[in-house]
Amino acid sequence: MTTTQTTQTMQAITQTAFGGPEVLELTTTTRPEPGPAEVLVRIHAAAVNPTDVWHRATGGLAGTDVPPVPLGWDLSGTVEAVGIGVTLFRPGDEVFGMPRHPAPAGTYAEYATSPARHLARKPANLDHVQAAALPLAALTAWQALVDTAGLRPGQRVLVHAAAGGVGHLAVQIAKAKGAYVIGTASAAKHDLVRSLGADEVIDYRSVAFEEAVAEVDIVVDTIGGAYGPRSLRTLRPGGIVVSLASPAEAALAEEAERLGVRAVFMAVEADHAGLREIAALAESGLLRPHIAEALPLAQAAAAHELSATGRTVGKIVLTTDVLA
Fold it and tell me: What is the pLDDT of residues 80-90, one digit of tens each?
């Protein structure tokens, strides 16, 4: 193993029970070591995602009958050490990524290990706070639009919650790929969504989007519930709704098939190639995260409270460079 230092402990956010934000504590714990094909990353920033809030409160996919899992998947930082067999990175490289998802990664910490190919080199024009905001949300948008829906130039894309963490990146990715982009957002957020490249913005509070939008090729649904069935009505024949909020119910898929369209549920996956595409878009100026708030790691509970409001514009990020 190649390393640049010998510190054996670190600061990390831990929890001893499931519950509200108050269960999160900053503690001193053992620093992990990279295994074969892994790297150890000195984390400078880690984003907060809705899935983090869910896992903190309920255990998420693991369920409440097991001990709490380490929180956090997004990271941006510097490679501290590399395990046996790693050829992509060396100590000192700046990287960003989404390790191990949906398995625990524990990026609410000063250090975390990651399979080397779950990371990519950090976009040179972004700082660590900006880079940390990208992996999970941007990979979700990329995999929904490009890998799942097969986005092509000239297609019409509808993005729900277009000012949210995934939505504001989906708008930019779709636009960079040559799509005509329509976003739903509250009126106060319209200027931001337009600045991201949206061609149209619909105030979902005053307009029924399914009556205002038609002939759509791809819908990115970050909300779920009734938005899935309503979104089917906006599609042209052969179009697709990609649901990111909850697994598409059988009734929705059956209704989609009856209408000559598709409805699928997608879960984001670790993706080295996708991260490189995202980094390239960022470095070309076509993709930039909007940072709603950057807080010290010690204020993780406050970050979760803010995330739980559902009113955040863009991304919330924790930084380890200032711990208190």
Answer: 999 999 999 99
CA angle 12, 13, 18 (to 5 degrees): 150
pLDDT tens digits for range 238-255: 999 999 987 767 788 889
**Domain residues for 140?**
136-265
Name the token pair of 66.
Answer: 């097991």
Q: Which residues pair with 48 in a beta bridge?
A: 316
User: What stretches of the chain adopt beta strand conformation (E)?
Assistant: 2-3, 9-14, 25-30, 38-48, 75-82, 94-97, 111-115, 119-121, 156-159, 180-185, 200-203, 216-221, 235-243, 262-265, 291-296, 315-319
Distance of alpha carbon 145 from alpha carbon 282, whole angstroms: 17
Burial class (CB in 10 A: 0-12, 13-18, 19+), 308: middle
Clarify whether residues 151 and 207 are in a common domain. yes
Please indicate, yes or no, whether residues 309 and 298 belong to a single structural domain of this protein.
yes
Q: What count of Cα atoms within 13 Å lies in the side-chain half-sphere of residue 171?
A: 28
CA atoms of 236 and 151, how far apart (whole Å)? 14
Q: What tokens does 272 get?
A: 């080295």
